[in-house]
Write a structure and sequence with these properties.
Largest sheet of chain A: 7 strands, mixed
Number of helices of chain A: 0
Radius of gyration of chain B: 14 Å
Radius of gyration of chain A: 13 Å
Strand content of chain B: over 45%
Distance between the termini of chain A: 37 Å
Strand content of chain A: over 45%
Helix content of chain B: under 10%
Number of strands of chain A: 11
Largest sheet of chain B: 6 strands, mixed
Shape of chain B: globular
Structural class of chain B: mainly beta
Oligomer: heterodimer
C-alpha cells in the first residue's frame, strides 16, 4: 500500500512551453501533497505544500506564477511549469501524506528544457 | 539556515559492515524523524522512522538510535550488502501541530563494496 505515482517520468520540451506533471496517490487519500525539486547529487528542496481544495503554500523564492500547483482531489495534485526555460531543468518529486506524519514519495519526473 | 545536519557526506564500507549515518537537529519542536533511501533516478523511499518517545527502533537490518537531549539521531545498517548502495536522507518535521513539510539533511552517499 501507500503508492504514489507520477506522470510523466521523463519529459523533454522546448524553451517557452509549459509542462504539466501529475502526482497521484493510488491506494490512499492524501489531504496534503508536497512538491520538491532535486538537483544532481543534492538534497530535496521543498517548493510548495498543497492541501486539497485550497491554494498551495509556496516556499520563499519559489515563483507561484511559474510553478502552478493544483490539488483538485484527495488523490491528485498537478504541477505546471509555465514558460519553461533551461534553468528549470531538474528532477521534480511529489510526496503525499496518509496521516499527520508519514510521507510517501513518487518516483520523480525528469524535466529537460532545451 | 540548515535545520538538519547530516554526516558523513559519503561513506564506503565492506560488505557485512555496519555503516552509521548521523543527523543533528536544532528545532526542539521536531517530533518525527524518518530516514529515506534513494537510488539514482528514483524517488526517496521511506525506510524507517522514529518518534522522540523511544530511544531506538529496529526494522529488519535498519536501526534508528535517537538521543533527545543531544538532539541527534542515527541510522545503522546491519550486515550491509552491495544492494544497500544508495543515498540516504534523514529528515525531521513537527507533526503534533499539524502536517508540516519534512526538513531534509543533505544526504549521505553510501557505497557497499563486495
Amino acid at each position: 500500500g501507500a503508492v504514489v505515482s507520477q506522470h510523466p517520468s521523463r519529459v523533454i520540451c522546448k524553451s517557452g512551453t509549459s509542462v504539466k506533471i501529475e502526482c497521484r496517490s493510488l491506494d490512499f487519500q492524501a489531504t496534503t501533497m508536497f512538491w520538491y525539486r532535486q538537483f544532481p547529487k543534492k538534497s530535496l528542496m521543498l517548493m510548495a505544500t498543497s492541501n486539497e481544495g485550497s491554494k498551495a503554500t509556496y516556499e520563499q523564492g519559489v515563483e507561484k506564477d511559474k510553478f502552478l500547483i493544483n490539488h483538485a482531489s484527495l488523490t491528485l495534485s498537478t504541477l505546471t511549469v509555465t514558460s519553461a526555460h533551461p534553468e528549470d531543468s531538474s528532477f521534480y518529486i511529489c510526496s503525499a501524506s496518509t496521516s499527520a506524519d508519514t510521507q510517501y514519495f513518487g518516483p520523480g519526473t525528469r524535466l529537460t528544457v532545451l | 539556515q540548515q535545520q538538519v545536519k547530516q554526516s558523513p557526506q559519503s561513506l564506503i564500507v565492506q560488505k557485512g559492515g555496519i555503516p552509521i549515518i548521523n543527523c543533528a537537529y536544532e528545532n526542539t519542536a521536531f517530533d518525527y524523524f524518518p530516514w529515506y533511501q534513494q537510488f539514482p533516478g528514483k524517488g526517496p523511499a521511506l525506510l524507517i522512522a522514529i518518534r522522540p518517545d523511544v530511544s531506538e527502533k529496529k526494522e529488519g537490518r535498519f536501526t534508528i538510535s535517537f538521543n533527545k537531549s543531544a538532539k541527534q539521531f542515527s541510522l545503522h545498517i546491519m550486515d550491509s550488502q552491495p544492494g544497500d548502495s544508495a543515498t540516504y536522507f534523514c529528515a525531521a518535521s513537527t507533526v503534533n501541530s499539524g502536517n508540516t513539510p519534512l526538513v531534509f539533511g543533505k544526504g549521505t552517499r553510501l557505497s557497499v563494496i563486495a
